[in-house]
Amino acid sequence: MLSTARILPAVVSIALVSSLFPQAKAAPPSVNYLNPAGGQIGQQVEVSVDKTLGTAPVSVWTSAPGLTVTIPEKPAKGKEKQFTVQIDAAAKPGLYWLRFHNAEGASEIRPFIVGTLPEQAEAEPNEDLEHAQKCELPGVTINGVLAKSGDVDTFQVKLKKGQTLIASQTANEQLGSPMDGLLQIINHRGTVLEQMEDTLWFDPRIVFTAPEDGTYYVRTFAFPADPNSTIRFAGAASYIYRLTLTTGPFIDHSLPLAWHPSTATPVALEGWNLPDDLKTLLPTVTESKEQALLSHPRLGNWLTIPLSTTPVVLETKESQAEKGQLLTIPATVTGKITEPKEIDSFRFTAKKGDKLTFKVDTYMLGYPLDAYIKLFDAKGKLLKEVDDARRNYYDAQLDYGIPADGEYRLEVTDRFQYGGFRYVYLLSIQPTEADFSLQTTEEQYTLTAGDKPLEIEVTVNRQSPRFNDDIEISVAGLPAGVTCEPVVSKLKEKTEKSVKLKLEAKADVVFQGPLEIKGVSLKDKTQVHTPTAVIKGISPKRKTARPKADLELPYLWLTIKKK
């Protein structure tokens, strides 16, 4: 249902930096995190890295247009790790990726978030109510860090009776911060009125309506995302977060949850403090061409939704009727388990021999539903039931061959019979199609010119039902003097599950840029995929009951340097 990802074009901002220590050994950039990790549209932000920007000259690649990055030619003493980001007035809000590189190599990519609200830096001391940092509403995004073990940050806001405050923290999920954050709302007496730990996976959000006029406090602290034996609140320089506090419009999800561009119709927004003119919005396709962006200057946040290959319909009251809501295959439906124990039912007609894939996306989209599906025939006989598609993956999927002509019924519910405002899902019923995906072991590679070849292993995942076609895997966009022969992955041969690409460079070649690997089915040239790679240092293994998969991105990088 989702379109194929592609490598985004590079937008490079180059800044030549004079070395303060010409005798020092040249070094590549090394960056674990950025602080602050974002900024407001139209503003200039001074950002620091935790390690080093590397030896001059240094350039910066970004995953999409909208950012101009400048590194001072002669940084002041103590500011050697700082640079500025000018966010264009026309930039789209969202998650951008930055990579620093020089002649010696490149850093791993790191996230930078562009938002719509005014920004404010967290200022210590702010550990208790007496020293709570004042924040001005209707909206602000605070860039903070829980810098040491036991650290607690506290912020104060003034609310009128009946005002709804959204306190939403971004840390572990988009920034890769190794923290499992908690939020609390506290009154002037120090009483905890609300507390939240996990909303968007490990990142908390509280929606609070003030019971009376007064000053209220938002407190945040954290535990490690990877649990250990300590029982204190955790903290470190890498515990970076962005905390949005707003009484303005804020969205949680859209109806439908996916968008078919050919329909060119707005989607409904579901959230809080939404005025009538912001209850619908027309999405725009993102640079990746696989998602649509929902954003507006008056919104306190933004949302990306997947693109669909078929028009998306909404669940109706018929889904609660005995017969169920009638669908025509192929179908993509957005539904919601509004109440505990609710079951949504959909019926459709299929023919003997049809091979269909039933898929429910919700958990991986950031919603709490643990999808559970059941397939029945016309007589009510249970044919198949599916909970989790695989271990640690909580979205249901079923590939099924239809045994006879007739009408069938599919039920969708929550595995533990929960329900509520955020229990939304995207159901697709499509003809089963064989497909494949690619993955590399690293997200960046270095080749020494004139030296031995660089081997890049590409893992081939022939998805169920097994993809039988030969797949040619090659590298595009290489500079003159660099060669790499395509390799074909063939079923029942050594190359079935993985191939090795060999890159060679002549002695005088120097290069820095995206590594553009692609796999193409030799039978159907329209089936094209680019590999992803796990981003190291930003995807901690979360040893919990409901972990989320490591972050994988298609932004591979190649450095070719001299001996």
From TrEMBL:
Domain of life: Bacteria
Signal peptide: 1-26
Keyword entries, A-Z: Hydrolase, Protease, Signal
Origin organism lineage: Bacteria, Pseudomonadati, Planctomycetota, Planctomycetia, Planctomycetales
Transmembrane segments: none
Annotated Peptidase C-terminal archaeal/bacterial domain residues: 151-219
Record's protein name: Putative subtilase-type serine protease
Presence of keyword Cell membrane: no
InterPro entries with a match to the protein in the record: Peptidase_C_arc/bac
Protein's GO biological process: proteolysis
EC number: 3.4.21.-
Pfam families tied to this protein: PPC (PF04151)
Gene Ontology MF terms: peptidase activity
